[in-house]
Each structure stands twice: as C-alpha cells, then as structure tokens.
Fold this protein.
Amino acid sequence: MLKLTGSVMIVSAAFFCGFYKAYSLKQRSESLSRTITALAVLESEISYGKRDIKSIFKTIGETQKLPLFADAAEEMSVHNSKTALCRSIDKQSMFLLGTDKSILKLLAENLGMTDTKSQLCAIAHVRRLLEEAQFSAVNEYKKNGRFYRSAGILCGLLVVILLY
C-alpha cells in the first residue's frame, strides 16, 4: 500500500510540474497580449486624453485587469513614473521572462519624462517589441505546451518504474 501511495504521489508531482510549465507558457502569451492592448490604450490616452500618467495607469489597471499598471499608479504617489513603473515591473511577475521585463523597462525610461511625441514613439517601439515577443510566446506554447504536459506524466512514470 505504501508503494502505491508513493507511486501516485510521484506521478502526481511530475504531472503537476509538466502542466504548470505548459500553463506558464500560456499565461506568458496572454499577459503579453493584455499588455500590448494596454499600451494601445496608453498611447491613445496620451495623444488624445491629455491626462496625467498616474490617472491613465489607474484606469488601465482597472479596465484591462492588469495589476502592473494599477500597482504603478499606487507607486506614483511616492516615486516618479520611471521608478514606479520599474518597481511595479519587478514586483508583478505575470509569467514574463527577463527579456519581456527589460522591454517594459524601456518604456519607463521615456514615460512621463519627455514630450508627448517622444512618449508616443517609445510606446510604439515597446509595443512592436512586445508583439514580437508575444508571437514567439504563442509559437513556443504551440510547440512545447503539449510536450511539457506529456513529458511530466512520462517522467513520473519513468521514475516509478525505476524505483520499483
């Protein structure tokens, strides 16, 4: 009975690890997609809305369900927009890779620090880079999502077979 329980736990743990890896790939793709949409909203708000960055971030955080921007809006009460956005990027994982976070930090360099035209150019540049990252994330999920799920189960079974 103890062997059976141990075997089930090993297979379950490996199953969970494989499905979690596939889930994180999918969540990265979805987070990038939501962030790209939020940047489009940010771009239109800056060019037409003429509101301050803090209120724009707060609105984006509430409407787009992105804690990154809501947290950055809260941080802006203490820090400037660059520091607030960088701290928020580091705090919120959203299943993003380090390269994705560095792309978002490029946005923090110009946002709220330069004129409207420069900000819009920076947003467009970051959005283009995130679209490329999102395209590769979708391809990676399509290519490896099923593999990770299957590999998790098979590795668990392999470990059980090797142990017994």
Q: What stands out?
A: The chain has a mean pLDDT of 87.
